[in-house]
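Format notes (please read before filing issues)

Several people have asked whether sequences and structure tokens are stored in separate files. They are not. Every record keeps both together, in the order shown below: the sequence lines, then the token lines. Line labels are part of the format and must not be stripped during preprocessing.
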Amino acid sequence: MTMRDLIPWNKNQQLTTGEAYDPFLTFHREMNRLFDDVFRGFGSVGRPGSPLIEGQFGWPRIELSETDKAVTISAELPGLSEKDVQVEIANGVLSIRGEKKAEHDNGGRYSERYYGSFERRIPLDGVQEDKAEANFRNGVLTVSLPKTEQASQGVKRIAINTSN
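Then the structure lines:
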């Protein structure tokens, strides 16, 4: 079953109801066609062997937290192990990449699960790249990077004025 099977028309078909011309329906069809054309080059999500839309829709989801002393990035990677993930940092950019492999052949079943390669790049500034630590537990990757001394000293507080 494809996504096209779930909608009552596609580019080459009209609605089967034989309704009269409706400008809003025509607008709706044209918008669907436009989005189909734009996203056609990104691959198909949900089929084994097809690439994930890398970074386009933000997979894997991340959470970034910052304290005075460190920056911590957590990424949700359900169904993966630490062997499936590669973490690198170079020139102020943290890269999280890997691949989620299909557990079995889809065999004509419908699946909304994501399979394929992924990569997420997070630019970082003022961290000690050589002291980065990564932990993987229960499908969550956590990367901790201590801040440089200059990064913590370079912060200036800005007073907020109220105007009445």
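For reference, the curators noted about this record: Residues 3-42 form one domain. The first helix runs from residue 23 to 39.
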